[in-house]
Amino acid sequence: MDRISALPDELLLKILSFLTTREAVYTSSTLSKRWECVWKYLPRLDFACHLSHRPALTGFLNRSLPLHKAPVIESFRLYIEELPHMKYEDVRMWFVVVVSRSLRELDISYHACPRQDILPSSLYACKSLVVLKLRGHILLDVPPRMVCLPSLKTLTLKKVFGLKGESLGRLLSICPLLENLLVHFCRGRDYDVINVGNVIVRIGSLQRLTLLMDYYCQLDRLEIDTPSLKYLKLRDPNGRQ
């Protein structure tokens, strides 16, 4: 056995943490048997799926994620480009797996069309989640009952297509300890005007608030009730701040 393979698992995980997740899995599977299972305990998982390697990464995630054994996933980041043949059911199942592992941070950029309900209902009841960042063609569908994000401190919704004041309000209502909120309302898919409706932010714990609106957005009413606020940035559809 070589000297590196004789190191404790904690140090081997530290070494693998300097690689991308795919590199870490490949390295573990090609070295000695001592390394074979080490990657399964990586606390941070980061994947990017571009058009050129869609089939490879999809198959890789379908095979590898169910084998992951870390009791706590510190962060899961996923970037997906426009992928017309990807099954959204596969993407949804990936999130089911990571949410079940006491997930603390979820960062998703999903740009596959059409907009899909890729977020499982279990996400909205994840007690361990501290950071949630969503971008792109993601449908927000907060279940009507038995949901709460009691640990969530940071929420970023950046150009989530179809996001309106009503759906934002439902999500904020289950985040009692939120401290940082960034929302970027965007235009419709074909530059259609989108009516955001009423945007109401009532969070006693909120300290930082950023609300941005694209040119093709219409806002009926904005109400902010945040007694703990320390930072505020607003940009209307005309670009005025």
TrEMBL record:
> Which species expresses this protein natively?
Microthlaspi erraticum
What name has this protein been given in UniProt? F-box domain-containing protein
Q: Taxonomic lineage per UniProt?
A: Eukaryota, Viridiplantae, Streptophyta, Embryophyta, Tracheophyta
Q: Which residues are the signal sequence here?
A: none
Organism superkingdom: Eukaryota
Q: Which residues form the F-box domain?
A: 1-38
